[in-house]
Amino acid sequence: MRELFTEHLIYWLILFLFMLGPYGMIFKKNLVKKLMSMNIMQVAVILFFLALGQKTGGTIPINLPGLIGAEHYINPLPHTLMLTAIVVSLATLGVSLGLLLTVQKRYGTLEEDELLRRMNQ
Amino acid sequence: MKFVRAGALLVVVVMTVVLFIGAGALPAIYNPQSPASTHVSDRYIEKSVEETGSLNFVTAVLADYRGYDTLGETTVIFTAGLAAVVLLRSAQKADSRGKKVPLAKAGKGMSERFGTIVLNTAARFVIPFVTLYGVYVLVGGGEGNPGGGFQSGAVLAIAIIISRLVYGEGAAFNISGDLALILAGIGTFIYAFVGVLTLLWGGNFLEYGIAPFLMSAAEKHSLGISGIEIGVTLCVMATIIAIFDALARKEEVS
Questions:
Q1: Is residue B55 exposed (0-12), middle (13-18) or buried (19+ Cβ within 10 Å)?
Q2: What is the SS3 assignment for A111?
Q3: Would you state the CATH architecture of domain A2-58+74-120?
């Protein structure tokens, strides 16, 4: 039982966070809430990768004098990948906010039902 | 409609259950023997200092081993900034046709709207330190501190956004949206240009070791990494400012 909590609990918490994303994107009617759900999903993916990079006995992936050997440092690869992913998610957030502003300007609403009704008119 | 929603709920629940079961088969967290931290990661940690001269492994992987990948990421960021600006500007042009916005009303910062000394003083103290920290993060990236181009760009952009928020579009410490787009392009160009330079010198794309300078290979790599980090910083900073400018201008005008 103890192994279960120390080894896999973090994955389940991250999965729960991840599944909030699809849930929100399907069931929330407001487009801004859908966008927020998408961002929560992105954060979960980032956390998942960072969790994979951890090692027992490892320190930050910066060369320290006197510490030689791969077992003393955590894995730098997930950090690298997620570093770019964070900034890219920021850029996509900017684009999607721009799209939402355009939709709001044109139809005067961001509620899905109301939006569909006004588009069909 | 009811059935569609029930079906969607079923899909979400089934997906959750499948993922939960799958997560049990993942390697235990903190395990040094897990596949993620055995193969290529050890190579990066053991060899990157002598090969690239960068004490920070993350910077070495980002700007050297995976430099081509990072060029793609930088281009994605630049393109996204461009798309956001084009999207918002075109919409804005379409609906402000005919009516003119009084200049005095457009682009007022918070300090003019609320007129508080607290805001002005706080901004005056915070902005220099944020800017300095941004530069420190950039310079420290390859020198054994956490940092690098992406983080530095974000922090520098925050400094300018604070100034924009408090003092408005007429702020002295400001980069206008048009200039920001140009800077983002220049940043991406610097990155690609370093790659093209190495091609001209007869090497592979982003192969820094080919540079005809009188230095050791590690120093050449270090120089190349500094070059593309500056490009990345410019691109990220300018893109964030351009997106902010496009979003905020919209709000200020209407």
A1: buried
A2: strand
A3: Orthogonal Bundle (1.10)
Interchain CB distance below 8 Å, B37 and A55: yes
Q: Does B20 contact A12 at a Cβ distance shorter than 8 Å?
A: yes
Average pLDDT of chain A, as a whole number = 88
Q: How many CB atoms lie within 10 A of CB A65?
A: 7
Using CA atoms, how far apart are residues A77 and B252, in angstroms rounded to an integer? 42
List the single residue in B with minimal CA-CA distance to A48.
B29
Q: What ipTM was estimated for this complex?
A: 0.86
CA–CA gap between residue B103 and residue B111 (Å, rounded): 17
Residue B169, Cβ neighbours under 10 Å: how many? Answer: 17
pLDDT of residue B106 exceeding 60, the answer is no
Answer yes or no: are the C-beta atoms of B51 and B221 closer than 8 Å: yes
Contact B56 A73 (CB under 8 A): no
Q: Please judge whether A101 and B247 are an interchain contact, meaning their C-beta atoms are less than 8 angstroms apart.
A: yes
For B96, half-sphere exposure in the C-beta direction (CA atoms, 13 angstrom radius) is 16
Tell which A residues from 73 to 102 touch B, by Cβ distance under 8 Å.
73-80, 83-84, 86-88, 90-92, 94-95, 97-99, 101-102
**H or E element at residue A66:** none
CB atoms within 10 A of CB A35: 20
Q: Domain locations in chain A?
A: 2-58+74-120
Q: Which two tokens stand for residue A92?
A: 């996509």
Q: Which has the closest alpha carbon to B94: B250, B252, B240, B247?
A: B250
A67 touches chain B (CB under 8 A): no
Q: Please tell me the predicted confidence (pLDDT) of residue B104.
A: 47
pLDDT confidence bin for B207, thresholds 50/70/90 = confident
Domain extents for chain B? 54-253
State the average pLDDT for chain B.
84
